[in-house]
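Can anyone check this?
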Amino acid sequence: MIEFLKKIDLFSHLDNNELENFTKKGQILPVSFKKGQYLIQEGAKYNSLHISIKGICMAEMGDITGKTIKIDEFKPPHIIGIGFFFSDKNILPVSIKAKTNLQIIKISRQAIFNLCKSDEIFLNKFLLTLSSRIEFLTQRIRFLNFNTIRQKLANYLLILAGGKENSLTLPLKMHELADYFGVARPSLSQVFIDFINEGILSRNKKKIIINRREKLLAVCNN
């Protein structure tokens, strides 16, 4: 368990004895979940920092219609919910579900707090990780605010391309991308076809060429 933590940048500089001491106190614990099990339900208290070390988990949120929206998917190693860990109410606004059989490490709030107080390097790394995660969540919220699949796809492709690059490779399969968008796969496929027919994109499997960047920008701004 200690060797897994040492592979994560946040803990890489810590002494093995220090981590083992937390383990002996029961402040660092290994936990396993089966595929489909929930680690944490939306609205629950988040008192221990969860770090995935084997398997895949995902964050989900229910909307007012009862539909489940996939917020993100995490591959190990990943620190889960760091953006909410030290909030006043420390309540997780999403559910975390095991997509596959999953192994995690739980670290108590007190252990993390003690490390932040006693270790300046750890504190700096923690704040950097926190800031990066908040930046991602800000982008994700903006993305979810798009009303149409055309807007979602246009924004997603522009972010992937970045800068002035017009060539990109899709990191997700079509059904995974549809889950990420919270839409039906056939509907997403149709939007791809529409963009290609309109001359906005060229596509060869996962390879995408943006032919008319200004058109994608216009879709996002409509």
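Reply from J.R.: I decoded it. The chain has two domains: 2-140, 149-221.
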